Amino acid sequence: MTKDDPHPRRRSRFAALRASFFTGLIVVAPIGLTIWLMWTMAGWVDGWVLPLVPPELRPERYIGINVRGLGVIIFLVFTVIVGWLAKGFFGRTMLRFGESIVDRLPFVRTVYSGLKQIAETVLSQSEGKFDRACMIEYPREGLKAVAFVSSTAKGEIAAKAEDDDPLISVFLPTTPNPTSGFLLFVPQSQVTYLDMSVEDAAKLIISAGLVYPQPKEAKPAKKTKVKLQSNKA
């Protein structure tokens, strides 16, 4: 290969173009996927909500085009109104009356109570959420898996544990879909708590180990100023 051989330059240009392409893909892919996901979810909600709206109230009848996301707005407004009414005396009375009717239906009662418990656990702003990430040995000794601490076991399950080593209910999600997983009861001594947040642990699981949380920087100690007070005679 001589000095005048053009192949190295061609290869370097191709490598530069390839690097630029992957850099642009890293920038464009998350934005495009986010927009696509929001667009798809809006269409899915519209498909459920808009058929319930009377045709004379739909905007496409007057402007000639289908407004994407209108069903999402209607759903949000409707949910806020229902929540506001449920806080009042009339709303609580109607809710208790409806639940009393549901309690008389065998199959419907089971489905409704289960879904209500799940909704209250996931959507409530109380201590029912996953608040800590941890590591446990799964599926065998020596292997580690990231999981979420749910709560301390109660009732009959708690009675099966050792007195000095209570059982902890842990949710072990699957990758890359963290909405499915396994409920495990692990002795507290075998649970290793992590400093990362639940959101960072979820990103780690969804990305199949490709996205690791950045280490938290230690905050510098605050310097306290001591004021010297002079004693006046």
Describe the structure.
This protein has three domains: 59 residues; 36 residues, no CATH class; 75 residues, no CATH class. A five-stranded antiparallel sheet has the order 4-3-2-1-5, with helices on one face. It is built from seven helices and five strands; from the N terminus they run αααααββαβββα. Helix 1 packs across helix 3 and helix 3 crosses helix 4. Strand 1 and strand 2 form a beta hairpin. The C terminus is likely disordered. It starts with 6 loop residues before the first helix and ends in a 27-residue tail after the last helix. The protein has 233 residues and is an alpha+beta fold.
Estimated radius of gyration: 28 Å
> Helical segment tally?
7
Distance between the termini: 94 Å
Instruction: List the uncertain runs.
Output: 221-233
The SSE string, one letter per element, is: HHHHHEEHEEEH
Biggest pleated sheet: 5 strands, antiparallel
Summarize model confidence as the mean pLDDT: 81
Query: Given the helix and strand composition, which structural class is it?
Result: alpha+beta
Strand content: 5-15%
Shape: flat
